[in-house]
Amino acid sequence: MSLQAVSPLVARRVFLANLVAQIGIVVTGGLVRLTDSGLGCDTWPRCDSDTSNWTPHEAISHHAYIEFGNRMLAYVVGAIAVACVVAAYRLTVRRKDITTLAWIQIGTVVGQAVLGGITVLTDLHPMAVASHLLLSMLLIASAVMLYERAGEGDAPARLLVRPEIRWFGYGTLAVAGALIVVGTVVTGSGPHAGDLKAKRFDVDIDQTAWLHADLAFLLLGAAVALALALRVTDAPLAAQHRVWWLLAVLIPQGLIGYVQYFNGLPEWMVLTHMFGAALTVVTATRVLFALRMRGDTRPEGADDLDAELREPVATRY
Q1: Residue of 112, 31, 189 lying closest to 120 (CA atoms)
Q2: 260 near 273, Cβ under 8 Å?
Q3: Which helix (H) or strand (E) holds 159?
Q4: Span 40-55, pLDDT tens digits
Q5: 8 A C-beta contact, residue 148 and residue 286
Q6: Structure confidence by residue, pLDDT tens digits, 60-81
Q7: pTM (2 decimals)?
Q8: How many CA atoms within 13 Å lie on the side-chain side of 199?
Q9: What per-residue confidence (pLDDT) applies to 193?
Q10: Helix (H, G, I), strand (E, B) or coil at 233
Q11: Do 41 and 71 meet the contact criterion of CB atoms below 8 Å apart?
């Protein structure tokens, strides 16, 4: 019995669930680290190196349940990634770009699971922890791409803004990436290692934190400049709105960063900052998709999100 065809609207909702799940696993992973539960299950794939147990048992502390719970959530994320592939192949009009992006979700989820095991087996080495988080951010960016591409047509891309503005958008996203990379170094040299015995990066945390702050100011300035450029060139409203969403994330994110630094990095603020980092990736990536369009109409059955992107482009573009 063949599976029923999936409309673009239903598929896009599956892809949105995938994006939400990817953000959620970043938050729960942060909770593991901030509760010093990173080695609650001290081996991988089993939970306890002294026995054959794959799951926590009564003799293990609550840290094991927190770490094991995060491992179980990875299966949920994996199941949603599989659903993305099924939805991509069952689309009423199958598209190679959508199926490729869907397979990337599964591939990176598997890679993330393996890297998570390496992180545990290396006793939370900061390089492994940083790589684990960075791969999560790449997963979020790819999930945004899948969601956005599913809402577009399949025609060649057509710019809605001047070419130099598009390149400035790419530069803004690159700064966001650099900010997150340096942020993982700050985290890897700070007090929240995931376990009291875990190693730390041998760097000056104050200098690294200020470099992180400098990049945050650079990203904020780039976002403001991009918003002004879109405004003065009468770019589509959707593009302008998405930059404003980016600014709406960056401003409180920067404030949280400063407050947590000068208040000894309280756990709840660090967790909020990690959530803000995920939202930064989402909003910065979505800006790029608002700077061009593919085709004059959306796929049949797609929703009306950002319909203003379909407005005619000004003649001077």
Answers
A1: 112
A2: yes
A3: strand 157-159
A4: 666 666 666 665 665 5
A5: yes
A6: 566 666 777 777 788 899 999 9
A7: 0.84
A8: 14
A9: 58
A10: coil
A11: yes
Q: What angle do CA 206, 209, 210 make, to 5 degrees?
A: 90
What is the pairing mode between strands 157-159 and 292-294? antiparallel
Residue that has been written with the tokens 């995060």 in this structure? 70
- Position 33: which residue type? R
> Amino acid identity, residue 223?
A
Predicted pLDDT of residue 252 = 94
| CA–CA separation, 25 and 87 (whole Å) | 22
Residue type, 294: R
Distance in angstroms (rounded) separating the CA atoms of residues 43 and 33: 16
Contact assessment for residue 309 and residue 261, using Cβ atoms and an 8 Å cutoff: no
* CB neighbour class for 123 (10 Å; exposed up to 12, middle 13-18, buried from 19): middle
pLDDT of residue 284: 95
pLDDT band at 93; cut points 50, 70, 90: confident
Give the integer Cα–Cα distance in Å for 144 and 160: 20
Distance CA 203, CA 258 (A): 19
The most distant pair of C-alpha atoms in the chain lies apart, rounded to whole Å, by: 71
Distance of CA 278 to the CA centre of its chain: 5
